[in-house]
Amino acid sequence: MRETQEDKPRRAELLARLRNEVARLESCHAAPPPDGLHLTPLLDNCFDQGALPLGCLHEIVAAGRDEDAAANGFVAALLGKLPKNSGLVWITKRRTVFPPGLAMFGLEPDRIVFAELPKERDALWSAEEALRSKAVSAVVADIANIDLTASRRLQLAAEHSGAVAFLLRVNAKSLSSSACVSRWQVRHAASIPPDGLPGVGFPRWDVELVKVRNGRGGRFTLEWRGSSFIEIDTPVTVTTRAHRKAGAA
Amino acid sequence: MTRRYVSLWFPYLVTDWFTRRYPELANVPFVITAQERGRLAVTMANPVAEAAGILPGMALADARTLISDIETFDDKPGFSAKLLCVLADWATRYTPVVQIDGDNGLMLDATGCAHLRGGEHPYLKDIVVRLRTAGYQVRGAMADTVGGAWAVARFGKDQPLIPVGETQAALSDLPPAALRISGASVERLRALGIRRISELTVIPRASLGRRFGQEMLLRLSQALGEIPEALVPSRAAPPLEERLVSADGIATAEGIAKALRHLLDQLCARLEQEGKGVRTLRLEGHRLDGQIETVAIGTSRPNRKPAHLFKLFENKLDKIEPALGIELFVLTASQGEPLTAEQEEILERDAADADAFPQLLDRISNRMGFNSLARFLPLEQYWPERSFVKAKSFDETPSAQWQFAQLRPIKLISPPEPIEVTAPVPDYPPLFFRHRGKHHRVKRADGPERIERAWWIESGEPRDYFRVEDDEGVRFWIFRSGHYKQAVPALWFLHGVFA
User: Residue-wise over B454-479: b if at least 16 C-beta within 10 A, else e?
Assistant: First the structure.
């Protein structure tokens, strides 16, 4: 059939409608997914929606024994970027996070409810329960070892309510497949104070985006300067491990 | 309203318990013994032993002359009191006010309770029959006064149920010992030839008081109902309580859930009228076999929404073991708190929203334990360990400010761990340090930041904190304890790791 001039806008409209339909079918969002979290221009580009998506599960992996604090700090910085009107739940085996240390990431530590749950089963139950609640905007779960089923449950709960889940994985035995939307490997990076000043500079991380659903990975050096992330360099390498799906941009 | 009391007397309380526990003892004579002035004395004998002439107070050696192979058990102090407590709890299914009466009796305030069991006669019969079925020999009586019920239970010959207004007539034939007076007074009355209470009531009160003292007058007046006598409940009856009786016993999970819903609706309707909310609730299931099953919940702020409270109970209902069935549910709120207008508003707003934050926290803390959740508030203290405090409630607002400008680590190592350092220059950060066997070469450093102890709380050395970054980019918070001294090597500690 030959395409006429009139058909063109109609076709575009149809395509847009179908795309929306497919997006709706792909997830079980009860409501349209919330806007993503804008971090830095290059980092935002890694995600197909142009920002770190909320309403899903992200894994933050501490890339080594000493990188526990780096991963925790990176999560705190991400929490600091979230809207400030709803609850935050932080689930740990044993709380070692120092509440006053969270303040430098623009986060009022008293907004966070810490749950100390030594058993992984309890932590998973509480994380899911918290994610299902509409009053919670983010859940941090310090769970080193998680299987596909458990991570799928968390992902579904997050999709259902639109809350974001950050799975902190420190000393994980194996990083087997999980249902997370993105996996980040975080390690400390040497800080360089601005203008050649002596002393220790701003918090700086070497962040590797190992896996992104419908996006591409990358490695960045990020610095937390006051209230936002700053990119230090262009990506060092583009990893080949990035998960690509057919049809993804 | 005429008050009505039920007195229960267990003449063989402890021996009955042993027979219940060891059924093979049913027809065997046995006694309970205790050390008394250097000899073993019988404190209680079971009916079989009593029939052979063994009485409490007798020496065990004398009892052995009557029955040579008599079984004996040690008397545990406080055992009968413990048994009575259990029985008193059991009896709360008949009335909320149950008093432990001496060492072998219970006193129930049955005022306004009998109609629930279809009248006074079935009420009293039900109590006595059930206790007897359970293996306790019991005598029960019901009368207008505490003293009257007590007397009829122990000394009554025919009718145990004394109708309203006939207590005096019922007492007249009983011996004076039925008046709860001391043994000495009983002996003296016997010496005077007074064998019945009716002979006592005709004596003018003034002369009675002169001869036998105030106790006699008080007991007589109490028994006759001239002076009111209050009971002290064995368990303080909480003001917020709802009960649900089921004749056949509920044994299914759905039945228990339905009963709980019903009770919660009733309790919450009452709380709404009184403008109160509750923070802890307890559900008791009284089982047909006499056991009591209990589950409890708590909330972070006063609440009176049946749906939310039910949700908190939901996870715990499977802990209730109904066995043959539960015949009575009692829902008690141990703390009723008046709600402020503001709290009511929050409660009404959140009620529509089962997802609200406090509801979520209640669900988690009821399942995981009330100490598993914590919120932290800032304190106006520089000493790191004292710079924050656990909030007492989830609503508490900070009274101090968080120090956004302070550079503090994200992870605190507590207590601080000692490190070995090489610091050639006084008052400068170290060039190397070793922590848990790992060498760290310091590339960058900031400091010192001196933090003094709060002298009004504790004494000790101040700390000089440094932020150092090692060659791998990890940033540490280390300190030197105390001032730098030339002769003494300084003590260094690792206290945290920065992001």
Answer: eeeeeeeeebbbbbbbbeebbbbbbb
Residue in chain B lying closest to A206 (CA) = B473
Residues of chain A in contact with residue B349, where contact means CB-CB under 8 angstroms, are: none
Distance from CA of A141 to the nearest CA of B (A): 14
H or E segment at B240?
strand B240-250
Concatenated DSSP letters of A97-108: B-HHHHGGGT--
Rounded to whole angstroms, what are the CA distances from A66 to A61, A188, B61? 12, 9, 78
Helix (H, G, I), strand (E, B) or coil at B273: helix
Question: Is the bond preceding A235 in cis, omega lying within 30 degrees of 0?
Answer: no
CA atoms within 13 A on the CB side of A41: 3
**pTM of the model as a whole:** 0.65
Distance CA B497, CA B440 (A): 13
How many Å apart are CA A129 and CA A144, to the nearest integer?
19
Residues 6+ apart with CB under 8 A from B37: none
In degrees and rounded to multiples of 5, residue A206 shows phi and psi of -100, 110
Treating both helix axes as pointing N-terminal to C-terminal, what angle do B253-274 and B306-314 enclose, rounded to 10 degrees?
A: 140
- Find the angle CA(B287)-CA(B290)-CA(B294) to the nearest 5 degrees: 55
Yes or no, beta carbons of B394 and A108 under 8 Å apart: no
Which residues of chain B does A80 touch, with a Cβ-Cβ cutoff of 8 Å? none
Q: Which residues on chain B are in Cβ contact (under 8 Å) with A127?
A: none
B499 and B415 Cβ atoms separated by less than 8 Å:
no
List the single residue in A99, A116, A190 with the smallest CB-CB distance to B473.
Answer: A190
* pLDDT, one tens digit for every residue, chain B (499 residues): 688 999 999 988 888 888 888 888 888 889 998 888 888 888 888 888 888 888 888 888 888 898 888 888 888 888 888 889 889 888 888 888 889 888 889 999 988 888 888 888 999 999 999 999 888 999 999 999 999 999 999 988 888 888 888 888 888 888 888 888 888 888 888 888 888 888 888 888 888 888 888 888 888 888 888 888 888 877 765 678 888 888 788 888 888 999 999 999 988 888 888 778 888 888 989 988 888 888 988 887 788 888 888 888 888 888 888 888 888 898 888 767 777 777 777 767 666 565 678 888 888 888 888 888 899 999 888 898 888 888 887 778 888 888 887 889 999 998 999 999 886 677 788 889 999 888 999 988 887 889 988 888 888 888 999 999 998 889 999 998 888 777 788 889 999 999 8
Between strands B376-378 and A164-169, the pairing is unpaired
Of B38, B49, B39, B40, residue with least CA distance to B14 = B49
